[in-house]
Structures are given as structure tokens and as C-alpha cells.
User: Fold this.
Amino acid sequence: MDIKLFDSELKVMEVLWEQGSLPARDIVDVLTERIGWNKNTTYTVIKKCIEKGAIQREEPGFLCKTLVTKDEVQRSETEQLIDKMFGGSSELFFSAFLQNQGISEEEANRLSKIIKEAK
Assistant:
């Protein structure tokens, strides 16, 4: 799965990941309240998500359901970032991240465990 979603599209997807399938009008209500979008903006972004294969529209009621999970999108976005900025090297990515962010002993222990389990 290699899908590129823009920030606006991720806002629509977040609503669906949180709440499950919803009619488009309910997505409009949530995003109007959260970030002040109007109906036309929300419908335009939903349409773009449908065109990209991230959302499926069903009748009745313009019911929207996700076709990709949050994990799939996170994985794809992470891979694209590492490819683009670090030449595909996870090691360079982690090195840059740790140099910029720092890490606590507790976080280091958790990451060590994750790395061991991933081998």
C-alpha cells in the first residue's frame, strides 16, 4: 500500500478512524466544530480521499468508510519520509531523530525491547 494523503485528507481520515463509518454530513459537522471547515471544503476533501482509494462511499446517505487503516497510512508515510530524507536508511533516520530529540532511559529501554522483538 502506497498512498499519499495530504494534511487536509488526514483530518477527514482521523474522524473516520476515530468514529467508524459516517455519513458525509456527520464528517462535515465534526470538522466544522474542530477546525472551522465549511461543508464545501469537507466534501471536496472527501472526494479527493475517494479518488485516492482511501475512502469508499456507499448509499444511502453518502456513507463514508475507510479502505485503509491508520497503521497502513502511518507505515506508508514513514517509509516515504525515510526514503526521501534519509536515502531509505532507518539507521540514519533514528540517529537524526535521537540527536534532535534526545531520549530518556525509560524510552531507551522500551526502544531496545522493540528492536529485539523486530529482529
Notes: The mean pLDDT is 91. The two ends are 23 Å apart (CA to CA). Helices lie at 7-19, 24-35, 39-51, 70-86, 90-101, 105-118. Strands lie at 22-23, 55-58, 63-66.
